[in-house]
C-alpha cells in the first residue's frame, strides 16, 4: 500500500507543506466544503505622520475629501484585477489605474499613516461608490481617516493611487521608498519575494469564466485531478508515459497559500520516492499542454482530467 504522510503545519517562516488532512478508511468521498473565510475586520485609526513616503506630486482627481482637503480619485465603480507582465495580478480601479498599499500602514486594525503631503502624492481611494468588482467582497472594507475620508481597504490594508501614474496600467509607484507596492487581490504586495512567480501565492484560486474558482500554482498554472486515481488508499495511476503530459504538482509552503483550507492539503509519496501535492487526498497535477498562465486546455481530456475547486472537487 502506498504510504501517505500526514503532516502538521509548523511555523510560517519555515513550514514545508504540513497538511493535516486525514485520508482514512471513510473512502474517496469528495470534500464537504472548505472552512468559511473569516470576515475582514476593519476599525478606524487616526492618521499618523507620513514620514518618508517617496516622491511628491499633485493629487489626482478634483473632489475634496469630506471634512478635509485631501483630493481623491473620482474613478468610483467596480474594482478589477489586471495581469501585469512584471508583477502578476494587481488591483486596479474602475478607470484601470493601479492601486497601492503602504508598508507604514497597518491592516489589523486598519490604519493609514499617509497624511498631508503624502496623501497628495498618494491619494487615498474612497470607499464610497467603489464596489468589489473583481476582488473577493470579503476582502474589501473601509477605514475612517483623520481627515474625514472613508478609505477603501483590501484585506485590511488602506489602498491608494499614485499621482505619477498618468495612464491606466502604469505602475510607477511600485517600490517607491521601499514602502509602496501595488496591491494584489489578496491584499499582498505585488512582486514580493517568495510569493510565487509574478507575485502569486504558491497556491491560490483563479476565477475562471467557464469553470468558476479553480486552483492554480505559483506559476499561474491550472492544477488538475485524474479520475483514475484513488483517495483511499491515496494512489496515483498516472505513471509512465502519462507523466510526459501530466506533471505531479510539488508540495508547497502553507504560509504561501490563499483561499484553500490548509487542512485539506497533504503530501503523497509516489512510488519513485518523490512527493506530490494532494487535496482532500487526491493527487494534483499540471498539464504540459497549458502554455500560458490561466490556460485550462487539460479540462475534460479523455473524460478523466478536470480542474479542481477549493474543496478538492472536480470543476465541471
Automatic annotation (TrEMBL):
Residues covered by region (Disordered): 26-54
Q: Which UniProt keywords apply?
A: Lipoprotein, Signal
What name goes with this protein? Lipoprotein
Per the UniProt record, the source organism is Streptomyces showdoensis
Q: Per the record, where are the segments of Low complexity compositional bias?
A: 43-52
Question: Which region is the signal sequence?
Answer: 1-22
Q: Pfam families under this entry?
A: Lipoprotein_15 (PF03640)
Q: What are the recorded Gene Ontology BP terms?
A: alkane catabolic process
| Highest rank taxon of the organism | Bacteria
Task: Kindly give the NCBIfam families that the UniProt entry links to this protein.
Answer: SCO0930_lipo (NF040526)
Amino acid at each position: 500500500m502506498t504510504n501517505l504522510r500526514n503532516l502538521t503545519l509548523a511555523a510560517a517562516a519555515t513550514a514545508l507543506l504540513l497538511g493535516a488532512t486525514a485520508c482514512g478508511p471513510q473512502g474517496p468521498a469528495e470534500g464537504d466544503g472548505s472552512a468559511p473565510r473569516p470576515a475582514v475586520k476593519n476599525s478606524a485609526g487616526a492618521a499618523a505622520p507620513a514620514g518618508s513616503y517617496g516622491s511628491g506630486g499633485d493629487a489626482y482627481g478634483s473632489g475634496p475629501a469630506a471634512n478635509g482637503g485631501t483630493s481623491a480619485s473620482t474613478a468610483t465603480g467596480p474594482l478589477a484585477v489586471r495581469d501585469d507582465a512584471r508583477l502578476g495580478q494587481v488591483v486596479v480601479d474602475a478607470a484601470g489605474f493601479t492601486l497601492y498599499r503602504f508598508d507604514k500602514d497597518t491592516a489589523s486594525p486598519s490604519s493609514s499613516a499617509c497624511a498631508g503631503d503624502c496623501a497628495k502624492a498618494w491619494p487615498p481611494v474612497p470607499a464610497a461608490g467603489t464596489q468589489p468588482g473583481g476582488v473577493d467582497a470579503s476582502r474589501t472594507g473601509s477605514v475612517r481617516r483623520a481627515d474625514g475620508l472613508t478609505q477603501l481597504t483590501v484585506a485590511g490594508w488602506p489602498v491608494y493611487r499614485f499621482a505619477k501614474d498618468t495612464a491606466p496600467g502604469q505602475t510607477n509607484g511600485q517600490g517607491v521608498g521601499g514602502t509602496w507596492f501595488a496591491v494584489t487581490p489578496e491584499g499582498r504586495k505585488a512582486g514580493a519575494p517568495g510569493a510565487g512567480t509574478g507575485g502569486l501565492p504558491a497556491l491560490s484560486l483563479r476565477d475562471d469564466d467557464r469553470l468558476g474558482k479553480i486552483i492554480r500554482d505559483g506559476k499561474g498554472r491550472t492544477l488538475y485531478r485524474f479520475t483514475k486515481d484513488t483517495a483511499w488508499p491515496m494512489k496515483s495511476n498516472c505513471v509512465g508515459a502519462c507523466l510526459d503530459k501530466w506533471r505531479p504538482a510539488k508540495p508547497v509552503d502553507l504560509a504561501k497559500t490563499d483561499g484553500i483550507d490548509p487542512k485539506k492539503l497533504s503530501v503523497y509519496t509516489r512510488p519513485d520516492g518523490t512527493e506530490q501535492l494532494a487535496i482532500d487526498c487526491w493527487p494534483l497535477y499540471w498539464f504540459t499542454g497549458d502554455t500560458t498562465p490561466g490556460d485550462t486546455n487539460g479540462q475534460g481530456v479523455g473524460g478523466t482530467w478536470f480542474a479542481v475547486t477549493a474543496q478538492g472537487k472536480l470543476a465541471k
